[in-house]
């Protein structure tokens, strides 16, 4: 078996099921990079995961097709309308460790040929009948078993599975005592089976209740003796303790009510600080902050763009573990790692004034402009009254800002000259594309080194564009002021020419290795980078301007001076004197091709996108 046989099996699977929503699988496209729901092994030789939850698949689940994917580890076809039965060839794929088929219309018996490598099996909310197969006992890797809400009957097997952490057999027609090996699970694991008895449910008829499933009989009788002797004292102590706790709770409650009244704080305020700590009950993880504004009824409304190969729903995103990457002018950005390991960036926008239609139109434009190798593509968005979320690819290793100004003692290697030119050209091309790509009117509005994300090959990917148009008023985050053109600081309206100014500051940042706003004197006065560079150049100390890390590179000063001239043209005070972005691109291309040849001049920008942006 190889990738080609996996591809044939997937195509056969797709053609055997009428689909409500079109799946983008075709003979001519790449299985591993563009097929929705498909994840390959790291070497790209086999299909490792197939995840198509809630995509409207309906009809009988085909036999002898998916079983051919013999490197498959995860299969998720949950929340579709698959019928008839679970084919034995699927359940027995030897490499399979997670099988999610919950919320379909599958019936018949659970096949006995279950793979012994399964770690998670979810067949809940179907119509399976018959007994729970004894074969489950052999699945020693099993950590979760969800069979609730089926029509399973017969006894509950005695399962000695050391890794089993989650079990749900509720709402079936099972009968008989709960085996001792499963009495550690809560009552909710067994509820809704009229004839199931024993701890943690009601004792079985004709048996004496035992206080603990594992307590040895001798200990039990000692306890009884102790209880007989001291029960009055124990009851009085419990009542006194309970009364004291109640009193303390009442005092705390009164203090809280008084404090709230004093603060005059409305109950619904502080929605933005909710989230991380909103942990649910048993087994639930704390939810990411950005989940707090998503309404229960709207959880299926994550809008994906065409060609996106991610396959998760909003529910998955809300369950992801989220880490704050930063709080910017448009909101908070999180790195979200989903349960299957998929990593994305979620931007939670604040203070959006655009209505739904306007917002959706802008998303369409951002998506269209994202079809460029130098731009971080927007993959999905969510819009509701209380919450606006954007989902992007997670690009590593990080921002240009971190690469230029990050901590050297933490092992950061300085960017060499060749790389800085490559990044400048990549970013310039991407911004020129934004300026020309949507009828010639589009403005980035937020160019800065934090918004140039570097791929593993250190190619520039421009992010965070097209959002200013959705916001109430332009926000000037302190970090942003150094990039703002003078006319924007006054009139607060960015233009393509103000983008050119910001790009000029970015070039100066790369040439000097200095941040756009500096505090040179002891009096803490702030100096703008363009003004500082101008003053040094005027004194004819040009070479003093360049980053000390660049001064070590031989024969590159000519190129540095030429790029400095481009940067200075971009930061001209009058917008009309600044070049257009296409002119900037041409100038950097000339500088690059007239290079001294001391370094290799390959052109990775010409490679196809998937090699260009490394996404984890
Ligand atoms: N797609 C991405 N992949 C990896 N890191 C990202 C991605 N998008 C943003 N980041 C990083 O996340 C951090 C926070 O980004 P965010 O856009 O919220 O703030 P900012 O760029 O500092 O400010 P602003 O909102 O004004 O642009 C930044 O360091 C940025 O480099």
SSE topology sketch:
Blueprint: H1 3-16, H2 31-34, E1 38-40, E2 47-51, E3 58-60, E4 74-76, E5 81-84, H3 88-91, E6 98-100, E7 105-109, E8 120-122, E9 127-129, E10 144-146, E11 153-155, E12 166-168, E13 173-177, E14 195-197, H4 217-263, E15 303-304, H5 314-319, E16 321-327, E17 331-337, E18 343-349, H6 356-369, E19 378-383, E20 388-393, E21 398-399, H7 400-405, H8 417-437, E22 452-454, E23 460-462, H9 478-481, H10 486-491, H11 496-512, E24 517-518, E25 527-528, H12 529-538, H13 542-545, H14 548-551, H15 557-570, H16 581-593, H17 609-612
Parallel strand pairs: 2-4, 3-5, 4-6, 5-7, 6-8, 7-9, 8-10, 10-12, 11-13, 13-14
Antiparallel strand pairs: 1-2, 15-19, 16-17, 17-18, 18-20, 19-20, 21-22, 22-23, 24-25
Helix pairs in contact: 8-11, 8-16, 11-15, 15-16
Bound molecules: adenosine-5'-triphosphate.
Domain Protein kinase: 319-591
Biased composition (Basic and acidic residues): 603-616
Protein name: Protein kinase domain-containing protein
């Amino acid at each position: 078996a190889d990738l080609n046989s996996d591809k044939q099996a997937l195509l056969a699977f797709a053609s055997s099921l009428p689909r409500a929503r079109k799946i983008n699988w075709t003979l001519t496209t790449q299985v591993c990079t563009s097929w929705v729901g498909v994840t390959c092994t790291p070497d790209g030789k086999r299909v490792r995961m197939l995840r198509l939850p809630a995509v409207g698949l309906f009809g009988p689940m085909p036999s002898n097709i998916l079983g051919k994917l013999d490197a498959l580890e995860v299969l998720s076809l949950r929340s579709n309308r698959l019928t008839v039965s679970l084919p034995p060839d699927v359940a027995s794929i030897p490499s399979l460790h997670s099988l999610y088929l919950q919320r379909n219309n599958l019936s018949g018996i659970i096949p006995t040929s279950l793979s012994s490598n399964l770690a998670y099996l979810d067949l809940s909310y179907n119509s399976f009948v018959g007994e729970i197969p004894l074969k489950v006992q052999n699945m020693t890797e099993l950590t979760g078993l969800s069979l609730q809400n089926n029509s399973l009957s017969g006894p509950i097997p005695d399962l000695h599975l050391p890794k089993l952490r989650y079990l749900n057999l509720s709402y079936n027609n099972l009968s008989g005592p709960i085996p001792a090996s499963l009495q550690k699970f809560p009552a909710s694991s067994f509820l809704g089976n009229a004839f199931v008895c024993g701890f943690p449910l009601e004792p079985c008829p004709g048996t004496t209740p035992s206080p603990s499933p594992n307590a040895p009989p001798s200990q039990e009788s000692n306890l009884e003796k102790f209880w007989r002797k001291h029960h009055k004292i124990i009851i009085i102590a419990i009542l006194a303790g309970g009364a004291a706790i109640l009193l303390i709770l009442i005092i705390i409650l009164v203090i809280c009510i008084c404090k709230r009244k004093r603060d005059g704080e409305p109950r619904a305020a502080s929605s933005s600080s909710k989230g991380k700590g909103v942990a649910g009950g048993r087994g639930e993880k704390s939810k990411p902050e950005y989940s707090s504004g998503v309404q229960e009824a709207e959880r299926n409304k994550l809008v994906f763009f065409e060609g996106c190969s991610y396959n998760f729903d909003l529910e998955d995103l809300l369950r992801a573990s989220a880490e704050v990457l930063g709080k910017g002018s448009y909101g908070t950005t999180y790195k979200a790692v989903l349960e299957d390991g998929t990593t994305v960036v979620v931007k939670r926008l604040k203070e959006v004034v655009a209505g739904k239609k306007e917002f959706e139109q802008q998303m369409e434009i951002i998506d269209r402009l994202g079809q460029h190798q130098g731009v971080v593509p927007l993959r999905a968005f969510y819009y509701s009254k209380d919450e606006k979320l954007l989902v992007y690819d997670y690009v590593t290793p990080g921002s240009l800002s971190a690469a230029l100004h990050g901590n050297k003692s933490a092992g950061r290697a300085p960017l060499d000259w060749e790389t800085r030119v490559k990044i400048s050209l990549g970013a310039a091309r991407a911004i020129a594309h934004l300026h020309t790509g949507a009828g010639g009117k589009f403005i980035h509005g937020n160019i800065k080194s934090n918004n140039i994300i570097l791929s593993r090959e250190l190619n520039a990917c421009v992010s965070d564009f097209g959002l200013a148009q959705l916001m109430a008023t332009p926000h000037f985050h302190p970090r942003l002021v150094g990039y703002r053109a003078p006319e924007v600081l006054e009139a607060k309206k960015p233009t393509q020419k103000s983008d050119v100014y910001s790009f000029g500051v970015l070039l100066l940042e790369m040439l000097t290795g200095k941040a756009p706003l500096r505090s040179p004197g002891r009096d803490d006065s702030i100096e703008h980078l363009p003004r500082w560079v101008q003053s040094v150049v005027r004194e004819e100390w040009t070479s003093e301007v360049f980053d000390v890390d660049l001064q070590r590179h031989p024969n590159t000063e000519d190129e540095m001076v030429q790029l400095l001239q481009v940067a200075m043209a971009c930061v001209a005070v009058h917008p009309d004197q600044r070049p257009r972005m296409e002119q900037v691109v041409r100038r950097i291309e000339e500088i690059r091709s007239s290079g001294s040849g001391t370094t290799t001049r390959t052109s990775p920008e010409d490679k196809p996108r998937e090699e260009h942006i490394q996404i984890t």
